[in-house]
Design brief:
single chain; 38% helix; 6 strands; six-stranded mixed β-sheet; alpha/beta; globular
């Protein structure tokens, strides 16, 4: 009797992976705004990786509605920039950012999602656009010669949703987002949109997201 009990206890003692909500609550006091279930079944009916559909009440739609509600409750009046990141790649960061942006758009809010994972741009694939070599990086490199509004794409999912792709991969991504023009760009975009969702790089791998974070009103991981 003691042997299996000992094995179970030792297994729990040596566990180093975060497996559920309780593990997060034990390690941090960071508020949890929602839990996303396995979305393998939902992807069967998805367009690319977009699982949130208008006027639907399936599990994924309700999940992102709950996340949206909790997130908006956290934002104060006038705050509108939402940063989405992850600790490492392949954790579903872009999936969450894209579907959150769609959910906000379905709420009737003019929403812009910006591809700030500029080392590995992926919004074109997520929203089903053909590969494009221009986006926000092109504007940040030459703000006097590039028209920012021409970089922004309209989405067929909702008239309230716009996409600003990452653009061509720059040789100096960290230095690029450190320039004052990045802050000025976000301030300009805030004048035209109710909410701006920044799909950033994994914060555990590169410093880009830590630099970008100062323009965000709230960050989710």
């Amino acid at each position: 009797i003691g042997l299996p009990i000992g094995v179970i206890f030792l297994k729990g003692l040596l566990k180093y992976k975060i497996e559920n909500r309780k593990d997060i609550e034990k390690l941090t006091k960071t508020p949890i705004i929602g839990e996303i279930p396995s979305y393998s079944q939902s992807l069967k009916n998805a367009v690319n990786n977009i699982v949130v559909r208008e006027n639907k009440n399936d599990v994924m739609e309700e999940t992102f509605r709950a996340i949206r509600t909790n997130l908006l409750f956290m934002l104060e009046k006038g705050q509108k920039v939402i940063l989405v990141t992850s600790s490492i790649p392949k954790e579903g960061k872009s999936f969450v950012a894209a579907n959150l942006a769609v959910s906000l758009a379905f709420l009737g809010k003019k929403t812009l999602i910006v591809g700030m994972d500029i080392r590995k741009p992926g919004l074109n694939k997520t929203f089903g656009f053909s590969s494009r070599s221009y986006g926000i990086t092109n504007y940040l490199r030459n703000p006097d010669e590039v028209n920012l509004s021409e970089m922004i794409m309209k989405s067929e999912i909702s008239p309230n949703l716009h996409i600003l792709p990452g653009g061509s991969v720059p040789p100096n991504p960290t230095e690029l987002v450190s320039r004052p023009v990045f802050d000025e760009t976000i301030e300009e975009l805030k004048k035209h949109y109710d909410y701006i969702v920044l799909d950033t790089a994994p914060i555990g791998l590169v410093t880009d997201t830590s630099i970008i974070a100062h323009v965000a009103d709230v960050g989710i991981m």
